[in-house]
């Protein structure tokens, strides 16, 4: 029987939940509000919250100065490209580790995770040299490869966790019915793992969208995504907070909207298997 | 005509067109996000009109990101950029490494002798000019005339540190959130250490002696740091250990600081009525001294350099020449007014009455720049070049590590003595490791 929850407790937990949510969302809200202020209002003390002269001037300046569409398209191509490529590699890898584990599978998983512990700047120069020699600097292809590689451990780990929850008996039954390995993965495993794959996909798109080390260091004029677009408005010498906020809002808007619409999938995927 | 012949002729025509198109050179310019650079970006069409065969692509990045980005590229000869915006810190190091194209062959019409000697000196290694200055800056005192006057005091044109302390004490009104002095406290070699290294020069301190032995255990450094901490603790704004240029600019513009010692480039911001609440009350003075012959002001310039190994050297040179020429100054003046021309690079600009009239801070900027000598930055002789930095590759890491110690002292986490002792130890260790 479900425990009776008093109204008081409900109110307290609701208020608490909202307070935490607002606290977390506040910096983003502040960025959005600042993007509609003038530069002078952006630094005003005490700051004005909602009562100020709303202006779209920053957006038009940003639009005038930079090619938002080029950066946006690069972000879309990089995040989707690296996610699709990553999934193509990770699904078979996670399948083999979940259903046909070998003696060293756990070690392999830990080793994969350990690659995430290396500070990226430690391998910047070697990767830069390799990219220079094979002509991948400032290309979308080069970045898709790098982003796939850096996110691959996380994709494999997530998929491995989901796949482990799927009873091996079902796959075995499919095999008994004469399904080939390909059929087994495509027609039996994948449909059952759709929520897990979907949330992995979404998380990876977000990670790739926000990646700001490699996307800044390996690009110049052609393949730079929205992270470089934001970096072009930040300045240690000069107050351009309103313009920086406008550029940031434009950069995060697509992913914010995507996250908003897919939050159910995301939460479901992330908590999948947490409660049995 | 057979189908095959027409196809062949068509192919030839396409190839001819493609060759014609490829005669156009595209150069990529990497730059920082500040007002003067953005203005230059807006005027690119003038350059492209004068050089129809050259197209310019811009990559604008935040200063620290740009530094990391262009350093990787120039060191690996990555060839991503044809023109790079670099500071006076990088030019001598990169020039010595052979990473930059020498610019001694600029045409006579460029008038290289017109460049301010202090700035030009910092960009020259063994007689070769390795970058052309786009704008130059020093640091100076910006103060509120109304507050100083209300306190019954007067700001001398060349104040001493004791006079600065006296004015700071008299103008501080913490109840009304007005602080006598705002100075950088945020850790970083280009943040608090730019200020403190320049300040230490006027106290007779130095980073290294002639044997490259760190000098943080000297009485001069102790005097510098305790004076700074005392000034900031008593008359500075709260939370100053996280204040950099931008934070202090915001404080000054909103009327919370009576004095601010920082980059001369700030003068155009604080006197702009669209941005600043105190625009009509700002006065300027030289950075303070202690009567030892050196002032506490720095010298910096953003310069355009060409990485060695670029395949488009000619086009890149044409661009650098255009962007740092006298004609460019006139172009900006014509389109946006004299107050907006990039300052601090050419003598002729400071002889131009139109400029002197439009920019009330011009004379003080020039005097500040001329008061700094990167070749002889300190009271005693030192083995290094650079006023607010030491032009060795290790300085970025060292400066930031020492800056963290001094920032921690400002935040009250360590004492001045501890901060200096830590700075001495870590500098000794790093210099030993680097083989000095």
TrEMBL record, chain A:
SUPFAM superfamilies: MetI-like. Its main location: membrane. InterPro entries: BP-dep_ABC_trans_perm, MetI-like, MetI-like_sf. The chain crosses the membrane at residues 12-33, 76-96, 108-131, 143-163, 184-207, 240-261. One of its GO terms (biological process) is transmembrane transport. It is a multi-pass membrane protein. GO terms for cellular component: plasma membrane. It comes from the Bacteria. It is found in: Cell membrane. Gene3D superfamilies: MetI-like (1.10.3720.10). Keywords: Cell membrane, Membrane, Transmembrane, Transmembrane helix, Transport. The keyword Transport applies. Pfam families: BPD_transp_1. Residues 72-262 form the ABC transmembrane type-1 domain. Belongs to the binding-protein-dependent transport system permease family. PANTHER family: INNER MEMBRANE ABC TRANSPORTER PERMEASE PROTEIN YCJP (PTHR32243:SF18), MALTOSE TRANSPORT SYSTEM PERMEASE-RELATED (PTHR32243). This is Sorbitol ABC transporter membrane protein /mannitol ABC transporter membrane protein.
UniProtKB/TrEMBL annotation, chain B:
The keyword Methyltransferase does not apply. One of its GO terms (cellular component) is periplasmic space. Residues 1-23 form the signal peptide. The keyword Amino-acid biosynthesis does not apply. Keywords: Signal. It is found in: Periplasm. Pfam families: SBP_bac_1. Its main location: periplasm. Belongs to the bacterial solute-binding protein 1 family. This is Sorbitol-binding protein /mannitol-binding protein. It comes from Albimonas pacifica.
